[in-house]
Amino acid sequence: MMNRSERQSFLGEDSDTILSALRVAIVGLGGGGSHIVQQLAHIGVGHFLIMDHDQIEASNLNRLVGGTAADVRRSEWKAAIAARVIRRVNPRAKTIAECTRWEERAELLRSCDIIFGCIDSFSGRAELETVARRYLIPYIDIGMDVHEQGARFSITGQVALSMPGYACLRCMNIIRPELLAEEARKYGASGGKPQVVWPNGVLASLAVGVMMQLVTPWHDEHQPVHLLEYDGNVPEIHPASSTGFLTAVDCSHYGSAADLGNPWYGRLVHR
Amino acid sequence: MSFSDEALAELRTVCPGAVPMDEGEITYIYLPSLKLPTGRSPSEVEGLLRPQAAGIDGYSTRLYLSAQYPECGKNWTQHRILDKPWYTFSYNNVPSSLRLVEILANHLEELR
Amino acid sequence: MKIHLRITRELLANARSDLTRPHAFAHERVGFTACKFGSVQNGDIVILAHSYYPVADEDYIRDSRYGALIGSEAFRKAFQLAYSNNVGLFHTHLHPHQGLPRPSRIDLRETAKFVPDFFNVRLALPHGALILSRDSLSGRVWTSAQMPPKPISHITIVGAPIETLGCRK
Lengths: 271, 112, 169
What we know:
The complex is a heterotrimer. By secondary structure, chain A is an alpha/beta fold.
């Protein structure tokens, strides 16, 4: 009888071991994060840290993978839904499900190998990336947008890999001061924008692929990508023209020793 | 960003132990024991003063606290800075040209 | 307590490149890796390697009893680094073979002498020793000057691809 990972044996004879030992955090378990959780469970990731402070609402049902009408009736936590998805696909996976704001429990991220950021706010993504950089953890960010253009709409998105020694979200122009300022004017509220399941699925799949290229690469001549852009109208996906492929960059936003590790480690803190 | 010894010394008269700490290009001043205006509970918290605009939120200066006070201050948001959780409220236009102790006092005034 | 080291592929390559350069009389080279730290659950420690500092050519001492002997000036510079940048110091050298490097008797004896001195400069941070091989690395960590070192149990080389060494269980 075939085992669960025989169809992915092309990822290498150690891939099962690598994936089952891998610790992955998914922060934000809405339309993008819930897709990622499902795919990682199928692939055989062994350790999950899933974080979302929200409960499912009816308006999430159009895209939240694993969410059901019954979940909406009982206002189930998104983290509990994601944990259930994992358990049903791979009962051997270990899951830490946090129904709190990630900012409160970010110390749990320190032992992760990869962090996926699937949150709406730019300030949240910037701060999450900073935590990932502090602990030298590759950070994969996904973002999707529906823009109104007169009487028409366009769907766009991107998947970005931010890793020490390479460009960050600021270098890639995903985080910009004017976006942060506009968001702050709305007091950090960034939800309520149009969101639909199929672009989320495309972006989530791309993000998982970016991770797999890092942990179980399957082509030794294949250059990893670090910024993929999605045009949901054409539809088309391509590496960003200027910074698409992973090349070493002197990122000016990170790199100082002061930005590495826990700045309170070894300090006497008055409490 | 650096601060004069005098400015820090003055700040330390109201906040003993105040010390600058950098994250990226932003310098914060950590306030290990910040006393809140009378009547607020908890009455003493950790604080983080950002005495510059920083280009991250359109605020000229900002005060972050280790606890939030929903009964005062407006539009509280949560953040992760220097690898700790912090709360801040919406109160803009406290100029960075003021003395550090004045910037702090202005922000605390909003929590009376 | 488990100890986990994360080091970028680039930093590791830089260190290997320096440590394999010939020296006028020393058979081996030595450097220092500056590190920062964090605590994780259960009191385990994560070490983040920040930068590698080669020992300058002129700071080696000619002594045929040792593959490499460095003088007080090399240590003074290293101490200055630790103090100025608030980092932990990891003495770093290379064993020129493939596979997991293990400390020799001399490695164990000598590091036990000088690593505890690093605590005189940065008391509250761990310090230690790293050994690189051509394709692997290992290390030991002192969390205090008085206690014997603990091995680094798990290493992640961060880059494309990500590589993990050791056992984190």
